[in-house]
Specification:
The structure is a single chain. By secondary structure, this protein is an all-alpha fold. It has 14 helices and no strands. Helix 5 packs across helix 11 and helix 5 (90-125) runs parallel beside helix 13. The protein is globular, with a radius of gyration of 24 Å.
Length: 317
């Protein structure tokens, strides 16, 4: 029990230290970028006195350490300043766009799990046979297609050939929740396609490896059916590698959704991030980058904890 608590506390400390380092890197990256934010906001026609006044109002004339502590406090309280471009709180802007990105990532992850698990189980049942080879070839093709290319192909097929969707149509979740989910289905599928192939490949290898273990042969000698061995022994023992790969895929999906949002014209964090880059809106930019990094680090933390719970041997290593 003490070892388990020590492992969890160690991982928690690791999480906090990682986030602290991430905050330092994010703040440093946007503080050393050449250019004067006040000058950018006021334009080239502004006088030096006007620029200096705005720098003072924005706190840009303060020492770097003071600016970092002030920014960090804002990050921790979900109030990391005001967007220069939108004249709104960064936290408010992110919370408005976050449901699109999180919703799309969650639907894409659900698609990955629902499709890749059964396919991997069927393919690993008789490796090397025709069904396994067909699944592997399709997986290789899907893995080679980037999400934005898949997005364009799906738009072409769904809107031009079948008139199923109108690109650019977006329904807010407050207006119609099921309409909101419907808007996210096609972009989520575009994100999920290469991840399904990735998950299928890892799961298939893990299941085949487990099926070659001694305990599977022992189970068969005791008369257990293949499906029972698969569901009660092979899949649970494949959980550790499955949890790890799912956490990697989920963070990858989060990154991929930023590009797909642009293709489908969805008002998510991806469009907000590109807008912040084009307008040199550093408070908004640093806020989005940090919170995306925070979600990614948190996913890996949860993955480590889940893997340790599934396999206690990990805590002893």
């Amino acid at each position: 029990m003490q070892g388990k608590a020590g492992y969890f506390i160690g991982k928690l400390i690791e999480l906090v230290v990682t986030l602290f380092i991430v905050s330092l890197l994010v703040f440093a990256a946007f503080s050393i970028i050449p250019g004067d934010t006040a000058r950018v906001m006021l334009g080239p026609e502004a006088s030096q006195a006007q620029v200096d006044l705005l720098r003072s109002q924005l706190g840009l004339d303060k020492p770097l350490i003071i600016r970092y502590l002030s920014w960090l406090l804002g990050i921790l309280t979900f109030n990391p300043g005001t967007s220069y471009a939108y004249n709104m709180g960064v936290g408010e802007l992110i919370s408005q766009r976050l449901p699109v990105t999180i919703g799309m990532s969650a639907i894409a992850m659900l698609m990955v799990i629902v499709v890749s698990y059964p396919l991997a189980m069927l393919s690993a049942r008789k490796p090397g046979r025709l069904g396994d080879q067909v699944c592997s070839v399709i997986g290789h093709i899907l893995f080679a297609i980037p999400p934005y290319v898949a997005s364009l192909l799906l738009i072409l097929i769904a809107s031009s050939l079948f008139s199923l969707v109108t690109v650019g149509t977006y329904v807010a979740p407050k207006e119609d929740f099921f309409g909101f989910i419907g808007c996210l289905l096609l972009p989520s599928f575009a994100i999920a396609l290469p991840k399904i192939a990735m998950s299928f490949k890892f799961l298939r290898s893990s299941i085949i490896e487990q099926k070659a273990s001694d305990y599977v042969r022992t189970s068969k000698s005791h008369g257990l059916s293949d499906i029972r061995i698969m569901m009660c022994h092979v899949l649970p023992n494949s959980n550790v590698s499955s949890i790890t790969i799912i956490s990697i895929i989920l963070s990858d999906i989060l990154g991929g959704s930023l590009i797909v949002e642009q293709v489908f014209n969805l008002p998510g964090l991806g469009r907000l991030l590109l807008s912040a880059i084009s307008r040199r809106d550093f408070p908004l930019l640093s806020g989005i980058v940090f919170y995306l990094a925070f979600i990614t680090v948190l996913l890996y933390f949860i993955s480590d904890i889940a893997a340790a719970v599934s396999d206690p041997r990990i805590r002893l290593k």
